[in-house]
Every structure is written in C-alpha cells, then in structure tokens.
C-alpha cells in the first residue's frame, strides 16, 4: 500500500508504523543518531518569528544535554522527536491484513525538507554529542513524522505540542534523580531521619495550606548544595553524615519544628506564622552551615555556634526584622538579594563574620533604611 506515487531519485527508506490522528496520516520510525543533524534543519533564525515554525534555540541548554548523553552512554534516555516532512512519501505495508497493514517501510526523497516541531534542543545536543563520541552515531532515536501542510499548520503543531507541557516539580526530580550526587545525599539525609522524613514533602515543591509537612525535598536539596559546597572531594558517606548531623543540630534550636512533629501545632500554622521552614531560610541556614563546617568538624562546636538560633524571632509578623530581607511586601521572596540579606542577618545573630558579598548587600540595605 502506498500513500503517494513513488518519487524518483535518491531516497531514504525507514521502517515505520502508520497511524491516523485527527484524520491525517502520520508515521513512527527510528533514525540513526548520525543522520539527525543532516536530516533535521532549523528555520533560518534571521526570519521574524511569524515566518518560522520553531522558536529560536536557547544555546545555553545544548551543552548540558549533550554532556548528559556523553557521560551516560549506557543509560541515557531521549524521547521521540516530532517532525514534519514536506515531500510526497511512499508507505509500503508488509501486507497480510490486520496489524500488518500498519507496519511497513516509509520512503522519503532526499530532496525533502524536515522541520522539527518538538525536540530542536535534543537535535542540537545530539549533533554536539556526536562530535565528542562518534560511536553514538549507530544508536537510534524515535521519530514521529507528520506530512507537512504548510507553515501555518507547523506553527499550530508547535503550539499544540507545547500547550500542556509542564515541567515536573523540582522535588520529584530530586526524588527520582539517581545520577546527581546531591539528590542522592538529600534523599539519604531525609529518609534516614525519622524527624525530617516525617516532615518533608517529596513530590510537590509547593505545600498546600493543609499539608502536614513543613519542608519540601527541593528546598532541602538547595540547602544541602549550599551546605556542602567545597566538600566535593569528601566521600559520599562522609558528606551524608555531615549534612545529617548539621540539620539535626539546627532542629534542636527551632522548637516549632518539633512541635509540628509531636502534633502539638499544625504545620500550616507554623508555615503561616513563622519564616524558618521556608526555602529561603533553609538555603540561608545551608550557607551559614557551610562556614560552620569549614571552621570545625567538631559537632560540639556547632552546638555552641548554632545555639543562638533559638533566640531569633522567626515570626513573619516581625516586619522590622524580615521585611526587605526574607520578605517583600509581606510575602516571602527568594531573590538572590533576599537570600544574601537573610543569610547576613542569621550570621550576625550567630556572631559570625560576613563574607564580602553579604557585607556589600548589608551595607546597601542599611543605607537604604537610613
């Protein structure tokens, strides 16, 4: 069975499955990675947006995706590319009736133009990865091909394919990421602690008003990155021990956290009335903790240093203390500037010196108040 009359000249021939969507034919096939840069081209980025079928590339994303492939040749995963082809194609079914009428070969003239509707960053990353590891060229990626019906249809396909695309919550990415060491450290710290395991939301990065959790896994991940910066050469187990011991010590001096776990007060009330379980404060505590760990690995010394945490007024209603630092207009804010100022305040309350960037932020904040 052929969808079009056979073309003349040189051709690509792919194994394919034919399907119907919205009354139109489409084909699912596989393509060697080495052919991807040759087949799939970008719209001219000099064209105005209304004359393109794709968005411009965010070139900063490409090295990261390529590195992921090159560094994980035995376990990387790529989802299918979606493309339109603007030529007369020929589909020849294997025959025999039934499902075999949907399986066959797809012949496409080499003069055809392929436009990626979804996956242009993966395409660019494949090209870069092949430069680093040419052996990847014989591996394959799935392609979903639609027959091109013009620029307007391609633009609509791009809009439709991205209409409901939602990035997964950072917390569940940390939960499922087994490549990133900091994700693994955070999971071990949380899951081996009865205290933090009981109070940490592992799927969502936003806590509902009635959630009985105080922290999100994503917030603790960011806090641990700050806490263990510069300790990358330490063994994995040692970093886990340091992080676990540090956060256990911090919890000793924030009594509301223990009250939530003991069901003496609800997590929602604490999140509403206090600021210490919010991501910006956890991140700040991680940055402060990094200095504490750099000074001493003696946990007895941490106790003396961190004890003043119990004397800080963490109430959100204390606008004199937190407005302009952890809060902006009465709402918690985690901008880079807010993080510097919140960390600087906690350091001062603990009697710790301020690094240069926090001192500059503190000086500017003080001048603004006066």
TrEMBL record:
Spans traversing the lipid bilayer: none
CDD domains: dndB (cd16412)
Matches recorded under Pfam families: DndB
Lineage top rank: taxon: Bacteria
InterPro entries, sorted: DGQHR-contain_dom (IPR017601), DNA_S_mod_DndB (IPR017642)
Protein name: DNA sulfur modification protein DndB
Gene: dndB
């Amino acid at each position: 069975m052929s969808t079009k009359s056979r073309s003349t000249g040189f051709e690509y021939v792919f194994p394919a499955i034919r399907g119907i969507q919205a009354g139109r034919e489409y084909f699912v096939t596989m393509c060697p990675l080495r052919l991807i840069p040759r087949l799939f081209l970008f719209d001219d980025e000099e064209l105005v947006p209304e004359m393109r079928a794709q968005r411009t590339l965010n070139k900063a994303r490409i090295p990261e995706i390529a590195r992921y492939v090159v560094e994980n040749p035995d376990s990387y995963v790529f989802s299918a590319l979606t493309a339109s082809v603007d030529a007369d194609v020929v589909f020849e079914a294997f025959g025999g009736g039934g499902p075999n009428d949907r399986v066959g070969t797809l012949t496409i003239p080499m003069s055809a133009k392929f436009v990626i509707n979804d996956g242009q960053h993966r395409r660019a990353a494949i090209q870069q990865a092949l430069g680093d590891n040419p052996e990847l060229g014989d591996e394959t990626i799935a392609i979903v091909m639609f027959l091109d019906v013009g620029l307007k249809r391609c633009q609509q396909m791009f809009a439709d394919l991205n209409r409901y695309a939602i990035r997964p919550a950072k917390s569940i990415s940390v939960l499922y990421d087994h490549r990133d060491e900091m994700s693994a450290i955070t999971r071990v710290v949380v899951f081996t602690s009865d205290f933090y395991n009981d109070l940490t939301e592992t799927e969502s990065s936003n806590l509902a008003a009635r959630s009985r959790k105080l922290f999100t896994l994503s917030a603790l991940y960011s806090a641990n990155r700050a806490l263990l910066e510069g300790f990358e050469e330490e063994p994995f187990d040692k970093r886990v021990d340091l992080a676990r011991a540090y956060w256990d010590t911090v919890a000793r001096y924030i009594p509301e956290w223990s009250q939530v776990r003991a069901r003496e007060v609800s997590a929602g009330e604490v999140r509403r009335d206090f600021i210490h379980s919010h991501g910006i404060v956890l991140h700040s505590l991680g940055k402060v903790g990094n200095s504490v760990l750099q000074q001493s690995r003696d946990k007895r010394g941490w106790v003396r240093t961190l004890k003043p945490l119990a004397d800080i007024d963490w109430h959100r209603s204390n606008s004199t203390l937190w407005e302009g630092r952890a809060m902006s207009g009465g709402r918690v804010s985690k901008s880079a500037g807010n993080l510097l100022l919140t960390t600087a305040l906690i350091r001062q309350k603990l009697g710790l010196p301020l690094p240069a960037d926090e001192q500059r932020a503190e000086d500017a904040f003080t001048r603004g108040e006066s």
